[in-house]
Amino acid sequence: MYVVETTWQGKRHSHSWLTCVSQSMLVAQEQCARIQEPNASHRTYEVSEKAFPVFFVVRERDYECMSRLQVQELLASVIPTESNDSVLFNVYIFTGEYLWGAEGRGNTERHFHVTGDSLSHYRSGEGSLWENIAHAPDA
User: Considering the domain boundaries, does residue 20 fall inside one?
Assistant: First the structure.
């Protein structure tokens, strides 16, 4: 699986996001050429997951590709903060090829803010976070 991470660099801060998740290196390279964002750079890399769904956990600004089992283990082990609405990290689920900004090709991504509240619901087998991680369709 190939990933394109795009970073926009401003005067005071930067922002990174995933602009491609594909099983094809050619598609990833074409996505880099297609995106013409001022002050942006692209990094293309391969991850160990080879089939959809593929999961990314984002902490701070670091994207970590994980299997469904690894995400489930992380959610079972993380200790919530005292504030139940503070975002601990984000989980992105890609159920098919994802091309940011491409008509009809960006609807395979879902993401969730993991908070103390969503962890509580997840651990009790309820809520959209549990539904989407436990039941993300295999390609």
Answer: yes
Domain that holds residue 130: 2-134
- pTM of the predicted model as reported, rounded to 2 decimal places: 0.84
Q: Residue 137, exposed/middle/buried by CB under 10 A (0-12, 13-18, 19+)?
A: exposed
Query: Distance (Å, rounded) from C-alpha 12 to C-alpha 83?
Result: 28
- Position 92 scores a pLDDT of 92
Tokens (6 digits) for 65? 């590709």
Residue ranges for the chain with pLDDT beneath 70:
103-107, 127, 130, 134-139
Does residue 139 lie within any of the structural domains?
Answer: no
Number of folded domains that form the chain = 1
Q: Return all residues near 71 (Cβ < 8 A) that are at least 6 apart.
A: 55, 57, 91, 133
C-alpha of 114 from chain center: 12
Q: Judge whether 94 and 108 are in contact, CB under 8 Å.
A: yes
